[in-house]
Amino acid sequence: MKSIHRHLRLSGLEALNIQKDMNFLNIGERTNVTGSKRFARLILNGNYDEAVQVARQQVENGAQIIDVNMDEGMLDGVHAMQTFINLIAAEPDISAVPVMIDSSKWEIIEAGLKCLQGKGIVNSISLKDGENEFLKRAQKIRQYGAAAVVMAFDENGQADTFERRIEICERSYRLLTDKIGFNPYDIIFDPNILAIATGIEEHNNYAVDFIRATHWIKKNLPGASVSGGVSNISFSFRGNDRVREAMHSAFLYHAIKAGMDMGIVNAGMIEVYDDIPKDLLERVEDVILNRREDATERLINFAEQVKQKDKVQKEDESWRLEPVEERLKHALIKGIDNFVEADTEEARLKLKSPLLVIEGPLMDGMNVVGDLFGSGKMFLPQVVKSARVMKKSVAYLTPYLEAEKQSGSTKGKVLLATVKGDVHDIGKNIVGVVLACNNYEIHDLGVMVPGEKILEKAREINADIIGLSGLITPSLDEMVHVASEMTRLGFNTPLLIGGATTSRVHTAVKIAPKYSAGVVHVIDASRSVPVVGKLLSVESRNDFINSISSEYQTIATEHANRQGLKSYLRIEEAIANGFKTNWLDYTPPKPNETEIKKWNPDLKTLTNYIDWTPFFQAWEISGRYPDILTDRVVGKEATQLFEHAKQLLDKIISEKLLNAKGVTGIFPANRKGEKVLIFNNESRNEIIQELVFLRQQRKMSDGIPNLSLVDFIAPEGIEDYIGAFAVSVHGAQELAKKFEDDHDDYNSIMVKVIADRLAEAFAEFLHEQIRKNDWGYGPDEHLSNTELISEKYRGIRPAPGYPACPDHTEKQKLWEMLKVEENTGMKLTESFAMSPASSVSGYYFSHPASKYFAVGKINSDQLKEYSNHKKLEVEEVTKWLRPILD
Length: 886
Known about the structure:
The protein has 32 helices and 25 strands. The protein is α/β, with parallel strands linked by helices. An eight-stranded parallel sheet has the order 11-10-7-6-5-4-3-12. Strands 18, 19, 20, 21, 22 and 25 form a six-stranded antiparallel sheet that branches. The longest helix is centred in the C-terminal third of the chain and has 30 residues, at about 745-775.
């Protein structure tokens, strides 16, 4: 029997398993009324909508867990905690991550636990009120299915020495595990990060004692994790962010090496350790490690000299004086392609072999790039620019290689493909570039690739790895099919799974059982390199595959168990608990015009509507625009990336390299049961289309409705309307191909990412036109781009295939209603993906209470009813809705 790997397991809507090889986990600290003046003000003023935005920003900025604290003297903490937790539970992007319920009051903690979905963390419990109360609360936490932060605090007060820290932690651990059987992997110790450099001698060893205690806990208390509030360490230097950032970074560097697993930290207040000036680092570490008696005085004096002023740096070209081998390495690491052909030729003549150039300075440089990226000291855009230099150099050498019949050695062959029916390939292309930078031979079959072609090509080239990518939910079924075919045909090649809709849970539950030779879900490009390395290593392959297989079996089992515990309503009950509108007191707005309209806006107009935050996310740089441009960690690279994007966008606009096409229509509509009937004209005497929508079916807390989009349309007898749109940006694929042909993956990917942003901007622009003019229910609306991005307007524009209406096949009805292909040239693939890839389509709802939500999982009774509404067999509908079926 295979052993199950044990570790701390948390979840929001998605699982977060804390394993030994994971990096430090950031716990977002800004949803804490005691730690954020802005958040406290929003909660005290009852502005929960903006407070939810704070939580969203924390997740977007890279928080893997969010800390929620409502301890404020003028606040009803129980009500505030319940309200906020319920609100973020309805936001899929926020509720995906686990929540830490943080309070010094047990009644607030329990209020949060009652509302919490998934498995969260309680922060905190301790022995300060005695053993009986400690164990009573721990038992409650276990009943609610949460993990617990245990403070190093007892009846005699807070631990402030190494000896007191380990004494209290060991006592707590033994009580929890021996007396009540608390899972040791659900214990997270906080051994107290206390302020140093205060001028009080007794405080000088606080950081050292925390680090020593962390190491002791990890060695002597099996299963337990370690956390802490990082900003406490630098409290003495509040007001001097430069010093505080350096202190946080240096402290974490040493604490993480000792075993610290997670911490409550503002990611914007941490500097890259290697980037801390040596003179500042020396003084900071003198204080943290208590290395000299005058450490505090020296840091205080030095802190006065530290200024946070941006400096214009003159371009340093001294590297051009180095030998050609060093110049090539430097160019690769810095992504400079200005001199690459001349330097490559010089190196070829010097080394007397094109192959020696590749296997020498080029690979030396790429190895450095790979190491820097793997250690988090280099970001994805920099890697892609390095790949551009490499490709241009190799392209220059290719004729010489062919003349000599030579080819360089590689680590292995990787076959990549976007599966049949799907047209999105940005993520796949990035993975290919990153792997190529690490000396893997990449064969990219492109998009819309049938399974038989993938496997045929894999055998033809004798691929060492097969990687499948997909963005839309039908892609998930295609991946299951490919895995099944690999088993049937006797493949023994490891299979990588990636793409926006994929997940570890889906991979474990649906794909891995179909193929036993190794299936691994890869969440982003940075994870692909170590995964592929382990899969192709003779020494580690079998152990790695066995470990992943065991982990996925555990995930599948836990998933099955959770399904049994979930509470669902019968569909009749869910409908009865739908959102209610008193239609006698509300008159739906009548459109100014209902004609189908074609749109071809100038791209310059659309730039005013671009949301740049997802642009950085596409390049795997986390942060919210414009704050990301001044971020201490990624700001420099983000700013450079942004400048490159604007330069390319200006070129696209001035040379008309891309063009936008769209179509809209507003139709008379009424609700009938769980359908929306679309009529030919105002007489409403002929039904031209029936839209079918799904409803949330999970059991909600009291007062929270089970939503469906039909709830926002008036019943028959009341004149109501629904809008529809489809927009696209054409030419990106062709322009990207030109860059690819010039060995420029950086600009090839950049074009596709910009085109996606323009398509979304087009959708935002059109929605504004509809609200203000065509439908006209918001004629006096005057919103900034920031307010548009934050959806401060009335109404919504949900898209088929996304959380509020997850059935992609409903797009076909949009295509028929708007004659989309005829009016825009946009097409639907057999899996209902839109082509070109930079496309958006959806509906317009005008009801002032309409909101975005996630349908989530549904039961078989709704599936059957939905199939009847669509006049399709249950088996056919199951094929398209499988990801949301319970």
